[in-house]
Design a protein that fits this description.
This is Cryptococcal mannosyltransferase 1-domain-containing protein. Pfam families: CAP59_mtransfer. GO terms for molecular function: glycosyltransferase activity. The chain is α/β, with parallel strands linked by helices. The chain has one domain: Spore Coat Polysaccharide Biosynthesis Protein SpsA, Chain A (Alpha-Beta Complex). It contains 14 helices and 16 strands. Strands 1, 2, 3, 6, 7, 8, 9, 10, 11 and 13 form a 10-stranded mixed beta sheet that branches. Strand 4 and strand 5 form a beta hairpin.
């Protein structure tokens, strides 16, 4: 081939690349416009989604630690308004607070009194045991939840500790069921800012057909908060913490149309699950992974494992509702609840490109391969070892410390 022929071929190739780039740019612009239209429609229709379509008996389960700001300014008021909307006889509030050093206990006593005045059944446990108390006396012999960490100390794992508290918040549900009192749903409610419309819209997710329905949570918008528990429908962690978040094409397609997003797991501030999952045959309970697996430097959120353990997750699906957004403080909530669509055209357009680059140029397979290798090694070291929540696993070790928790 002559130099002139090579030059012409090079020009043709450059033209093809240029035209492809222009076509891709135009396609993204059109895609962003369609997303913007879907967000506008979702914002317009949201009030009609957040209505009580039929009576529902709801059991609220919540754990708290140093949440006075949210409790006094938002959470207590939201729970009381929800009680008035559902009807005091259709709600049970179960709160387990432990070891706060702010005035969370006083705020929850006020809620307890206000719920009593409304005639709402509740159980509010204010436990004086602090994190420091929990870790003060490591057991001399192997004890569930305690492991020897790389720091050379016997330390209490964070996730078994949280699982125990969450299970305590469910105890009244079990006791009531044994005495013939049934509920339709459990609402797991974190220390978040929310409205009654948010709660009811979440309840109505996918026309009420789900094993679990979750909100989106924010502490520092535009980044969403709960990366530990959220996995797309293919079981992958996020591509980016900003919209549209997901690696899976199925999950991205749903969120781009502001529809319930099929996921493998979510929590994200507020979760509805059918109550029978916790009171029927083979009832679910929160758990951590086995201590021996944790010693391989692996961990998994109890809020992810609950979905991995739930057979209904495969049959009915787990959904994240992108139209229900909660915040961990007032400004975060306000930022994701503007008048009209919650994302600008620029945020949509840049988000689409950011997500593509993250998916194209970050290799999640290596992280997942490392986790799988550690898990496979653990399984080979003992007969009958098994962990069904593989997609929940991350390469970390987390332990309780006096002022919260730490990576080791």
């Amino acid at each position: 081939m002559t130099p002139r022929m090579l030059w012409r071929a090079s020009r043709r190739s450059s033209s093809v690349v240029r035209y492809l780039f222009i076509a891709f740019f135009i396609w993204t612009a059109i895609d962003a416009a369609l997303v913007s239209h879907a967000l506008t429609a979702a914002a317009r229709d949201f009030p009609s989604q957040g209505v009580l379509r039929k009576p529902a008996r709801v059991f609220i389960a919540s754990i708290h630690w140093n949440n006075e700001y949210v409790l006094r300014n938002f959470w207590n008021k939201g729970v009381l308004e929800l009680a008035r909307t559902l009807g005091p006889g259709n709600l049970f509030v179960s709160v387990f607070e432990s070891g706060s050093w702010d005035n969370s206990k006083a705020a929850l006593r006020e809620l307890d009194d206000a719920l009593g005045a409304l005639g709402v059944q509740r159980k509010v446990i204010l436990d004086e045991t602090t994190h420091e108390d929990e870790i003060a006396h490591p057991p001399p012999a192997p004890t569930p939840g305690w492991v020897r960490t790389p720091r050379g100390r016997i330390e209490l794992r964070r996730i078994p500790y949280l699982s125990r508290l969450r299970n305590k918040s469910l105890e009244p549900l079990v006791e009531l069921a044994e005495n013939g009192t049934q509920f339709d749903y459990v609402l797991f409610l974190n220390d978040v800012v929310f409205s009654v419309t948010d709660v009811l819209a979440l309840l109505n997710t996918n026309d009420g057909h789900y094993a679990a329905a979750c909100s989106l949570d924010f502490s520092k918008p535009p980044n969403y908060y709960d990366t530990f528990a959220l996995r797309d429908i293919d079981g992958h962690e996020n591509a980016a913490q900003t919209w549209p978040y997901f690696r899976s094409s199925r999950s991205r397609a749903a969120i781009k149309r502001s529809r319930p997003v099929p996921v493998a797991s979510c929590w994200n501030g507020m979760v509805f699950m059918p109550a029978k999952a916790f009171t029927g045959p083979n009832p679910l309970r929160f758990r951590g992974i086995d201590d021996s697996l944790a010693l391989s430097h692996l961990e998994a959120s109890e809020c992810c494992l609950i979905h991995a353990d739930n057979p209904e997750s495969r049959e009915k699906g787990v959904f994240l509702n992108p139209n229900v957004r909660v915040g961990y403080h007032g400004p975060a909530y306000d930022q994701v609840h503007p008048t009209g669509p919650w994302l600008t055209y620029w945020e949509i357009w840049s988000g689409l490109w950011r997500n593509r680059f993250k998916r194209w140029f970050t290799i999640v397979m290596f992280k997942e391969w490392m986790v799988q290798r550690l898990k496979t090694s653990w399984e080979s070291e003992g007969m009958g070892r098994k962990e069904d929540g593989t997609f929940c696993l991350i390469n970390e070790m987390q332990v309780l410390v006096a002022n919260g928790w730490a990576h080791v």
